[in-house]
Amino acid sequence: MTGNEVMVAVMVIGVCGALMCGFPVAFTLTGASMVFGLIGYFFDIFSLSFFGVLPNRIFGVMTNEVLIAVPLFVFMGVMLERSKVAEELLDTMGALFGTMRGGLGISVCVVGALLAASTGIVGATVVTMGLLSLPTMLRRGYDPKMATGVIAASGTLGQIIPPSIVLVVLGDQISNAHQEAQRSLGNWSPDPVSVGDLFAGALLPGLGLVGLYMLYTGVICWLKPELGPAIPREELLTDASGGLLSRVLHAMVAPAVLIIAVLGSILAGIATPTEAAAVGAIGATLLGGYRLGSDRPQPIYTAVFSLVAILILVANVDLRVARTVITGVEWAAIIAAGIACAGVAWGMLVSFARVHGNGTLVEVNRQTIRISAMVFGIVIGAQLFSLVFRGFGGDEIVHEILSDLPGGTIGAVFVVMLVLFILGFFLDFIEITFVVVPIVAPILLMMDLNPVWLGIMIAINLQTSFLTPPFGFALFYLRGVAPPEVTTGMIYKGIIPFVMIQIFMLVLLSVFPGMATWLPSVIYGTS
């Protein structure tokens, strides 16, 4: 082995070892990169000029409008968590499906999908459903392994069902990798790949995972009733007066409207992911204000209808005022949009006053800052690691390894997916996205792979990082809120079938890539 190869191998092993010892990710990436860079400079196999590129990289992150969606989606998710949306959904869905064998498990899958599509934050979803549904499931006679498995797996749906923070950061990395790969192939004007493409591509596989979770839960509990017994009908609120129907509608309307406003505006091309995230943050705040003052809903209703009116006007009329020629219809639309903005502002001020009054706003802001700072700290550390890795020629080494694998493109994809799956046992999706993906994605995309398909494959693979021991974060979240009689071993055993389902979805997606590429091609005309 050459000196560069030795340094690359030792640096990667050193970083993984430090992370497994519990050192903070951002500091580990930054410190290891600087130490190994200086060692390489001492042995004359690394140029310190690579460090000089770091400020430009950081400036590029600061000016990247796509990444602004991260704190906005985090704010939206934390605000919804505090708005008791999950609690109402779980109660209502439990009453709706509880009379079936495994009905509570199926209701957890449905609620997990709805929360994933409206919050996208795995930790909040797992903790909320663990606190609310796990005691109920255990009290109703559910096997602890079955109950914990379905809760942990459903909580991780926020990884793959859009809008997802994972898809935002992964979409940014896949876009950069696609451009780099195309430039290496001599194409200096490649078709862009956006976060919206990944959102559209992830929709069918994400819903497919929900369906597989529900199918497995229903079938296994039907075959083995002791795993998930049905609840007697007389114990549920299913009166004939339409009480259950009204509860379902009340619980579903708010999340459904928010999902349509956020995801629908992206897929329809009305808003970018960042703009849609802002709409989601506004919607979550309005929902929080409504929950805290449902007896005085007029400002909230006004803001919601005004927000819908703004989206409709933006989609159909040119509202720019800095023009020389503006028709009468356009002036009317501009004035209407101004009035609608005033309506949104009124509702937002009322909502802010309500959520601030009970301390919710302070906690939401604190959580948003904490999570966003963690993400962007890792981004900066990953940028430095990537520079040092490339300075040692690590990208060329990886390219040679993947190119020489038996099986060509299929062999390279298989090995990369296997490596990502194994790394998921020890690293979080953020580290893998910002450290590993920029290294391997350009190489794979040079093999004429569809970038959207590759991004969704990686996203589903990264989803397992939340479920696989020893460092699966969803397992830790659930362990923290589970009652003492539920052991860690039970949680580990419970997630095994759901990890197998995720692997099965990866196989399906590799055999039928149209599951990820069909919807983007219909919506955006991409190939």
Any overview of this molecule?
The chain is 75% helix and 0% strand. The protein has helices at residues 3-20, 25-42, 54-62, 69-82, 85-97, 103-118, 122-139, 144-155, 165-184, 195-223, 243-267, 273-292, 298-316, 328-357, 360-391, 394-403, 408-423, 429-445, 451-463, 473-481, 488-511, 514-524. Helix 8 (144-155) crosses helix 21 (488-511), helix 9 crosses helix 19 (451-463) and helix 18 packs antiparallel against helix 19 (451-463). The longest helix has 32 residues, at 360-391. The radius of gyration is 24 Å and the shape is globular.
Amino- and carboxy-terminal Cα gap: 41 Å
Helix/strand-derived category reads mainly alpha
Q: Please work out how many helical segments DSSP would assign.
A: 22
Q: What percent strand? A: under 5%
Give the averaged pLDDT, no decimals.
83
Rg from alpha-carbon coordinates? 24 Å
The H-and-E topology, N to C, reads as: HHHHHHHHHHHHHHHHHHHHHH
* Low-confidence regions: none
Overall geometry? globular
- Major sheet characteristics: none
Number of strands: 0
| Helical amount | over 70%
Which features does this protein show?
527 residues; 0% strand; mainly alpha; globular
Secondary-structure topology with pairs:
Blueprint: H1 3-20, H2 25-42, H3 54-62, H4 69-82, H5 85-97, H6 103-118, H7 122-139, H8 144-155, H9 165-184, H10 195-223, H11 243-267, H12 273-292, H13 298-316, H14 328-357, H15 360-391, H16 394-403, H17 408-423, H18 429-445, H19 451-463, H20 473-481, H21 488-511, H22 514-524
